[in-house]
């Protein structure tokens, strides 16, 4: 193909190299073998193409409330005004009154539509009225999402004397145990670390009044269902439960029925996340050609904030290092990084200190990064669901985005 991806040049043929090893740190295929038993789907290249999405106009939601209409705490209202929050998104508009009313809520919304504020704002209001310690438990699928939720909670609760702690893997568990002893109001954690702290007797859940499952579909995709159930069994039966998800599947439906009591469902999905993402493929003849094409793409001015997905931790790190060495500032985020390293990489990408973040699927789940211009699938995803999740990192909140996927030239 000659002009198949956003007007760029494709398939110039591989550049010649004087070495058997390519400059990205390996010969031939550089990824590690997949885990034993893992199965990779064949995804036809046509499913990676949607060249008409850029012409679609996102539907504009007309809220029935302003934030000032909600019965939120006065200090919280002042913080929202300072942050210039005036009109809520669809999920916020419809879910906040129900949560304030004490209802169990199932919130279904596309990624990047403000689900975090939809549950945090009413919960912070309830805490302002009755600031009981360890009364809020929020479960998230990844360290990064847990950190993002806490950052939002701190931003909204300024001067409210409401404290939170984050319990995730990759960080010092002794420090987390000390944090729990101080009695935070809000506990935000990933399923594995929460269970670890429960087994050590450092975490008690008998005082939880508000239980939030954020990105429930991602948690099930990642195999956390048993960890979630172990935690939920220790919660008081008399509590308010909020479950937010981008999709609803039979497994999620079963989980919701088990944890909630007469829930109200708020569904504001506006079609697939990928509807407003312009998608195309890039054909490469071999590994070196793929690297050359990626370098050429990232050298273009329009590729100003790019998330690149790789298959393995080692391949992702090598790719980020090689791009940086070639003058394209890049950071890597994957499971071998400590929490502080992951946070630094994420911060440098958000603050435009680097233009490229190279990530594995698991590390990138739940990331909320504004204004990602492009998603590039350097290695193809294992499943089509993973593909949809990857490209959902761009075109967030109804904005247009662009996604490119490398495929073998036929």
Please supply descriptive tags for the structure shown above.
alpha/beta, Rossmann fold, 7-stranded parallel β-sheet
Quick synopsis:
By secondary structure, the chain is an alpha/beta fold. Helix content is 34%, strand content 15%. It is built from 14 helices and 13 strands.
Q: How would you sum up this structure, described in words?
A:
The chain has a 7-stranded parallel sheet with strand order 3-4-2-5-6-1-7, sandwiched between helices. A 6-stranded parallel sheet has the order 8-13-12-9-11-10, with helices on both faces. By secondary structure, it is of the alpha/beta class. It contains 14 helices and 13 strands. It has helices spanning 74-82, 90-100, 115-129, 143-156, 173-181, 191-199, 216-221, 225-233, 250-259, 287-298, 313-325, 339-350, 361-364, 384-391, and strands spanning 105-108, 136-139, 164-167, 186-189, 210-214, 240-245, 264-267, 277-284, 306-309, 330-333, 356-359, 374-377, 401-408. The radius of gyration is 22 Å and the shape is globular. It has 2 domains: 45-57 and 272-408, Rossmann fold; 67-267, 3-Layer(aba) Sandwich (Rossmann fold).
């Amino acid at each position: 193909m000659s002009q198949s991806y956003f007007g760029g040049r494709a398939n110039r043929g591989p550049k010649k190299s004087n070495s058997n090893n390519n400059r990205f740190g390996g010969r031939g295929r550089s990824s590690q073998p997949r885990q034993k038993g893992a199965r990779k789907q064949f995804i036809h290249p046509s499913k990676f193409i949607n060249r008409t999405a850029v012409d679609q106009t996102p539907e504009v939601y007309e809220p029935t409330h302003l934030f000032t209409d909600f019965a939120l705490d006065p200090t919280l209202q002042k913080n929202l005004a300072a942050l210039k929050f005036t009109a809520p998104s669809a999920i916020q508009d419809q879910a906040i009154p129900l949560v304030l009313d004490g209802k169990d809520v199932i919130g279904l919304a596309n990624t990047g539509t403000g689900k975090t504020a939809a549950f945090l704002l009413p919960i912070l209001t309830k805490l302002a009225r009755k600031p009981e310690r360890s009364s809020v438990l929020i479960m998230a699928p990844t360290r990064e999402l847990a950190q993002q939720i806490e950052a939002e909670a701190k931003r909204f609760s300024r001067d409210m004397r409401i404290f939170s702690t984050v319990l995730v893997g990759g960080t010092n568990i002794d420090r987390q145990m000390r944090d729990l002893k101080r009695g935070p109001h809000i506990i935000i954690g990933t399923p594995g670390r929460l269970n670890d702290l429960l087994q050590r007797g450092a975490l008690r859940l008998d005082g939880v009044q508000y239980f939030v499952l954020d990105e429930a579909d991602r948690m099930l995709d990642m195999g956390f269902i048993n960890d979630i159930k172990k935690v939920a069994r220790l919660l008081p039966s008399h509590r308010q439960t909020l479950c937010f998800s981008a999709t609803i599947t039979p497994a999620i439906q079963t989980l919701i029925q088990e944890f909630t009591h007469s829930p109200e469902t708020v569904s504001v999905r506006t079609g697939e996340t990928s509807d407003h993402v312009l998608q195309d493929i890039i054909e490469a003849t071999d590994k070196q050609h793929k690297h050359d094409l990626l370098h050429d793409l990232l050298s273009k001015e329009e590729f100003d904030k790019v998330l690149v997905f790789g298959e393995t931790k080692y391949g992702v790190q090598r790719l980020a290092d090689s791009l940086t060495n070639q003058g394209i500032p890049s950071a890597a985020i994957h499971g071998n990084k400590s929490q502080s390293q992951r946070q630094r990489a994420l911060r440098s990408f958000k603050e435009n200190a680097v233009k490229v973040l190279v990530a594995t699927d698991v590390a990138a789940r739940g990331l909320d990064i504004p204004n990602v211009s492009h998603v590039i699938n350097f290695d193809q995803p294992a499943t089509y669901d993973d593909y949809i999740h990857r490209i959902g990192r761009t075109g967030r909140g109804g904005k247009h985005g662009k996604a490119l996927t490398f495929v073998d030239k036929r």
